[in-house]
Amino acid sequence: MRPVTHTLDLTAARPAQAETWASRSLVGLTRARIAERLVEAGLVDPRKARMRASQVWRWVYHYGVRSFDAMSDIAKELRTGLAATFTLDRPAITERQVSVDGTRKYLIRMGPGIEVEAVFIPDVGRAGALCVSSQVGCTLTCTFCHTGTQRLVRNLTAQEIVAQVVVARDDLDEWPTRERPLNDGDRCLTNIVFMGMGEPLYNLDHVADALDVISDGDGLSISRRRITVSTSGVVPEIGPLGARTNAMLAISLHATNDALRDELVPLNRKYPLAALVNAVRAYPGLNNSRRVTWEYVMLAGVNDSPAEARALIRLIEGIPSKINLIPFNP
């Protein structure tokens, strides 16, 4: 018999699925997509779509409103049409854990059988960082990573990535109001790290669109210098990541020689250390104020010897760098 092959669409939710929070919600959409949705619904003249989308955008991403009635600078007739056609729904938090140190871990349901993790970590960056996921599951079977034991289901859309930030802002009560403006110094969430489930560079289009939304100064307004994208070493996409997003770069390294990294991070067999380091050296905008972060999990008796510490310094010599030594969590 001829073998049967199956192709998995990783770009979006399957159209045949039941309606989810994202089906009608404007939350998580790019500015351009909001404008398109308003026109497609027949609610605004195409010539005014950009202006109307900017109004909706500010209410959604600056104020985090949950009702179209709150959009006080939009005509009542349009607000009624928006409420009849769209929602401002967020994905549901199915589990929320808070640690004694203030860390908040969220399990977020994006659709039937589709759940991802996001983690807010206090005292990272200026105030605190949110670790977001870019895929449901992962194809990279890194031996020390729990997500690597899960099969890849699909990529997250840009809307689903942005929604993780909105959900965290909700939980942290970080939306300003006319009566209670919030300055940068008042915020808990100031940094975003793409270090959750999945390999971001295997979903670069959606990651780049999400980054545009998160960094927009009229909305969530998290500077690109405070957004870090971590990769296990998808070498061909490292340069495009920098060119498209201007985000900070982190490399999930964990070994200083190919033999050991082949074992710990199997992607190294496709893109070995020499190619990876060369790609990092060429990353756009690297300098002493925009350093690459090298993530190195400490595995006792495996990669933590003084000799390997010296080898790490030699490997990254000349690259503006920060080294993040991570205690292994059994």
Kindly list the characteristics that best describe this protein:
alpha/beta; DNA polymerase, domain 1; TIM Barrel; 2 domains; 9-stranded mixed beta sheet; 11 strands; elongated; disordered N terminus
| Fourth CATH level, the homologous superfamily of the largest domain | Aldolase class I
In the CATH hierarchy, the third-tier topology of the largest domain is known as: TIM Barrel
State the helix count: 10
What overall geometry do the principal axes of the alpha carbons give? elongated
Total domains, how many?
Answer: 2
> What is the strand arrangement across the widest sheet?
1-2-3-4-7-8-9-10-11
**Structural class by sheet pairing and helices:** alpha/beta
What share of residues are in beta strands? Answer: 15-25%
The separation of the N and C termini measures 45 Å
Topology as H/E string? Answer: HHHHEEEEEEHEHEHEHHEHE
Detail the poorly predicted runs: 1-17
**Which CATH-level-2 architecture of the largest domain?**
Alpha-Beta Barrel
Radius of gyration: 21 Å
Largest sheet: 9 strands, mixed
Describe the structure.
This protein has helices at residues 21-24, 31-40, 49-61, 76-85, 158-172, 204-215, 235-245, 258-264, 273-281, 306-315; strands spanning 92-98, 104-111, 114-122, 128-131, 135-136, 154-155, 191-194, 227-231, 248-252, 292-298, 321-327. With 330 residues, the chain is of the alpha/beta class. The protein folds into two domains: 26-85, DNA polymerase, domain 1 (Orthogonal Bundle); 92-327, Aldolase class I (TIM Barrel). The chain has a nine-stranded mixed β-sheet, with helices on one face. It has a two-stranded antiparallel ribbon with strand order 5-6. α6 (204-215) runs parallel beside α7 (235-245) and α7 packs parallel to α9. It is elongated. The relative contact order is 0.11. Residues 1-17 have low confidence and may be disordered.
